[in-house]
Specification:
This protein is of the alpha/beta class and 197 residues long. The chain has helices spanning 2-21, 23-41, 53-66, 85-94, 102-108, 125-137, 167-190; strands at 46-50, 78-80, 114-119, 140-145, 158-161. The structure holds D-altro-hept-2-ulose 7-phosphate (I22) and zinc ion. One of its GO terms (biological process) is D-glycero-D-manno-heptose 7-phosphate biosynthetic process.
């Protein structure tokens, strides 16, 4: 069994190395952070959603914005669309699960906001529908995906596609990139000084 642990960690590291070598991807993460900080500086907000492990990512990332990541600073305006079980069950039950994020964007989304959709396949219908609605509302769209980007690729203004087709490894890279994205937004918003140790 121990050799499997070693082998799997090797896969995690190999995917992260591929991500680090992908200059286009690195540039997109930096641009996505800049546009998010600009939106927040104008009083707009970040909305985040995904399914399963990516729902956990959505909540994790939003917690960094609302609490803090590396800077001791005021709260930043962000919300995860994965946390309200009453909304998720009502919309899922009455309209269909594929509308559970779209409906919340209909309620909350304003022109100039940012939506970050996370899907390792790039094909989850509820994420696709949310991205499509954002396009009509003038909400900036960021996608974190894998598997070549899937169907969400054409719906994303900023497209972070992890070069991998294994869900768990894509998720591991997503988490690393989500932390860096949040760190960069903090830097753009508040400046590079006063970083926590
Ligand atoms: O965490 C994992 C697998 O590592 C699962 O919960 C996974 O997130 C779920 O199967 C999701 O439904 C997958 O959706 P997506 O990433 O393709 O949009
Ligand atoms: Zn998982």
């Amino acid at each position: 069994m121990k050799h499997i642990v070693h082998e799997q960690l090797g896969k995690t590291i190999a995917v992260l190395e591929k991500v680090r070598a992908d200059e286009t991807l690195l540039g997109v993460v930096a641009e996505a952070a800049e546009v998010t900080a600009e939106a927040m500086l104008k009083g707009r907000k970040l909305m985040v959603a995904g399914n399963g492990g990516s729902a956990a990512d959505s909540q994790h990332l939003v917690a960094e914005f609302v609490s803090r990541l590396v800077k001791d600073r005021p709260a930043l305006r962000a919300i995860a669309l994965t946390v309200d079980s009453s909304i998720l069950t009502a919309v899922g039950n009455d309209y269909g699960y594929e509308k559970c994020f779209e409906r919340q964007i209909e309620a909350l989304g304003q022109q100039g906001d940012v939506f970050l959709g996370i899907s390792t396949s790039g094909n989850s219908p509820n994420v696709l529908r949310a991205l499509a609605l954002c396009r009509t509302l003038g909400v900036v769209t960021i996608g974190f995906s894998g598997n070549g980007g899937g169907k969400m690729a054409p719906l994303c203004d900023y497209n972070v596609i992890v070069p991998c087709d294994t869900t768990m490894n894509i998720q591991e890279s997503h988490l690393a990139l989500e932390h860096i994205y949040c760190m960069l937004v903090e830097r753009c918003y508040f400046g590079a000084e006063s970083t926590l140790v």
